[in-house]
């Protein structure tokens, strides 16, 4: 099976698919599936643009909305994870994964699926220690803090993935597993990205959570993006017992989608010729979701996952063969993921721009159906309930304040601070692209290029490297300073993060079909292609 792997997409879907078409014309190579390693940017409308953590100058409507509306259809099954520049409000609708457009599937906060017998897993977002132990509490409209924390990896997702026992063929993460650079041509990497040196030497570059998963899952392939450079590595895992067979992981990180950059790789992977051509659920993963359902947290309070430390009655949430069998029986042994995509937000109309469209918190029918089928908690529904309870408490507190004012106690501070000025503070752990002021109005967002006259990028995107023999990367290859698979790339990725306009928090529900005129949040990109050296990791 031919698998196309892409680095940071940055919303350049047309460019990506045109490159695949060019590949087929020139080399007669047609991939069976496309995997995107984050910064996908599934932006449907102007409200989604506001939910991307980037300065306003990088918020440009790309062409995903044309796939969302049905005007275009992805020519190949596309599976992606989230990065740190996403329409977070859109992806948040699908915490367990789902279709963002026909033939384009999002893996969720963390997820595992199967395609033609190949097991594909992934985790969305990037690692930030200060948010790692929190629950998924964020919801639109976001403030300057939550627009960033919304895409930060949480310990519950890592915990779930660590319950997996079955072998993993492919795993995706946006940021690199920490220490993976020690298993490849580190010298050449630092020649291309000299500003990585301090972090590499101190072993702080990359995600410790992803590294933990790499050690546990030992997948055959691990694909990443984020740092905007192509890098291959070969990691031989240590065995924990004499009975365990030695395993190795072929790691590949790719550049962002730009002309003459190494953003695309074709990999030949063995598959089951008798397996279904449809995208399928993974029965073990579904069983794990059911087993860990009671661990869901939708508050910003930090908490630890169960450990064998004497403080928890249960710490092993891996599932038995019987539990997996029960999932198969629930599905009548039909694991095919239903094609139940549905529009949940108005689509961008270039003839009628809605610059002031607001983002609202939406319950996606796909998630509702998934949770009902497997008896899971809809995270967004739980968040909505919590917000409504907070709203009731807030009204009660306001009444108390008014009573205090009427009795001459107006100068006494309320226990509940209603001042929103704190929302303008900048998270010190985030790196901004520029020194512009905090919030910028969406009126600065561009909707170019014109969908009626899209530019032809085919000739520019001709630098496609096809690594033969199933991306054979031996330990010698990885350390070879002349390795052509580790080629030059543009400057490193700046955490192009900036916040949207501040808005008082509010909760807006949707109708039963999830189809209200609700607005959503997300998106970014295009000027990013004009400034190749303006990249830096978050």
Automatic annotation (TrEMBL):
Span of the signal peptide: none
Compositionally biased region (Polar residues): 417-427
Annotated localization: Nucleus
Biased composition (Acidic residues): 396-405, 431-442
GO molecular function list: metal ion binding; RNA lariat debranching enzyme activity
Keywords (A to Z) from UniProt: Hydrolase, Iron, Manganese, Metal-binding, mRNA processing, Nucleus, Zinc
Keyword Hydrolase: yes
The keyword Mitochondrion belongs to this UniProt entry's keyword annotation: no
Cofactor(s) the record lists: Zn(2+); Mn(2+); Fe(2+)
Residues covered by the Lariat debranching enzyme C-terminal domain: 235-380
Predominant subcellular localization, coarse grouping: nucleus
SUPFAM superfamilies on file: Metallo-dependent phosphatases
Family: Belongs to the lariat debranching enzyme family.
Name of the protein: DBR1 enzyme
Species: Crypturellus soui
